[in-house]
Design brief:
By secondary structure, the chain is of the alpha/beta class. It is built from nine helices and 13 strands. Strands 1, 2, 3, 4, 5, 11, 12 and 13 form an eight-stranded mixed β-sheet that branches. A five-stranded mixed β-sheet has the order 6-7-8-10-9, covered by helices on one side. Helix 1 packs parallel to helix 4.
């Protein structure tokens, strides 16, 4: 796995797609927000970038699109989300598709918010063709089947009726619900490590109709041999390093699809290649 401080150092004319996950952005973590803006600057500098995938947990918590859409123009000017939207819109105007998937933290994210920057909400599993191989993309929480309590919670929260019920509650009550959920998820620290990771049988089932599996969620970036001939790629979460120094860094393991710059659609050509990259951004 290679490490870069800027995506433009990775042969910029070859990078066709970028895949990220588990940013957990919030106003309480401004360094992560700045690192994401730095990544978008790099994406804008990539001359042939065609797609940016955000594979879940983009935000630490998402209470509904009206959390931002209901703001006045004056309120939006000073809101921490506005610079992200502005830069994402620039990226979309430059010709890069922005594809967003739900995670376990931001399952209430909707298409209306994505419309602000021309993004598209996608659903798991999503098939990405790289060369002659089909990659199955998902957030990853559905693969952690040993955590029975979480899977029950996930089934309830992903139900459309539950989401309709939550989104029709006043924002203040949703804030209280989110606070309870946050405290409940803090109990994950007391769970055994294997329960918090993917289940082998769930992985085998998920990858059965694909050539490779790509997900986030577990915060354990690696390349695994899922079967004798298929690999499982895990994206990393975004985390602050050395916060006490003058110029701290944010580090994340992200994915990139590269290909021959001579091809008009290289991520579907024989020359296309997927790889994991450690992205580090100075704050």
């Amino acid at each position: 796995m290679q490490s870069f401080e800027h995506l433009i150092t990775t042969s910029p004319h070859e990078v066709r797609q970028v895949l990220i996950s588990d940013l957990h952005l919030s106003p309480e973590e401004p360094a992560l927000v700045q690192a994401f803006l730095a990544l978008l600057d790099d994406c804008l500098a990539l001359p042939v970038l065609k797609r940016l995938f955000i594979l879940g947990d983009w935000f630490e918590v998402w209470l509904g699109d009206d959390f931002y859409l209901s703001l006045s123009d004056e309120e939006r000017q000073s809101h921490w989300l506005t610079p992200l939207i502005v830069k994402l819109k620039r990226l979309r105007v430059a010709g890069c598709e922005i594809l967003v998937m739900h995670g376990n933290r931001d399952f209430l994210l909707g298409q209306p918010f994505c419309n602000l920057f021309g993004g598209e909400l996608i659903y798991e599993p999503y098939t990405l063709t790289v060369g002659q191989q089909n990659y199955r993309l998902e957030h990853g929480d559905a693969l952690c089947t040993d955590d029975k309590k979480y899977q029950f919670f996930r089934k309830i929260m992903r139900n459309r009726l539950t989401q309709w019920y939550l989104l029709n509650k006043p924002l203040e009550k949703r804030l209280a619900i989110a606070d309870k959920m946050r405290k409940s998820q803090q109990n994950n620290a007391n769970k055994a490590a294997h329960i918090m990771d993917v289940n082998d049988e769930a992985v085998h089932q998920a990858i059965s109709d694909s050539d490779a599996l790509l997900h986030g969620h577990t915060h354990r970036p690696a390349i695994h041999q899922a079967t004798t001939d298929k690999k499982r790629y895990v994206l990393g979460d975004w985390r602050l390093l050395d916060s006490n120094i003058r110029q701290p860094k944010v580090s994340a393991v992200i994915g990139a699809v590269t290909g021959d710059e001579q091809s008009n659609d290289s991520f579907n050509s024989n020359a296309a290649e997927f790889r994991l990259i450690e992205f580090k951004s100075l704050i």
